[in-house]
Amino acid sequence: MNSIQLIGRLTKDPQITSIKVNDVFKKVAKYVLVVDRKTEGVDFIPCSVIDKGADWAENNIKKGSRIGVVGSLRINIYKKDNTTVYKPEIIVAEQYFA
Question: How many angstroms from the chain centroid is the CA of residue 34?
């Protein structure tokens, strides 16, 4: 099972773009959550949400907003300068004020 839950604050306002899926354009919101670690320090977690969730993000959250997200972890893998790069991202299914 690939499921993750996080609570954190946005590092900046969501970036809104669109993608084409089956000849239909869908809105995408991308943002980074800063999440406290249990011991010390923080993690910066990139998140993406599509369609109605992107609308909610665009209209309701901004830099500094404290939100919770539920989603799945995706690791994007690509080559850069003959090196394999692994870039984690949360695909958000639910988001809410926390």
Answer: 11
pLDDT tens digits for 50-80?
999 999 999 999 999 999 999 999 999 999 9
Rg, the chain, Cα only: 14
- CA terminus-to-terminus distance, the chain: 24
- How far apart CA 45 and CA 66 sit, in angstroms, is 14
**DSSP letter assigned to residue 2:** -
Question: Are 28 and 17 a contacting pair, CB within 8 Å?
Answer: yes
Report the CATH number of the 4-97 domain.
2.40.50.140
Count CB neighbours of 9 within 10 A.
17
Residue type, 62: K
SS3 of 58, please? helix
Domain boundaries, the chain: 4-97
Tell me the C-alpha distance between 64 and 60, whole Å. 12
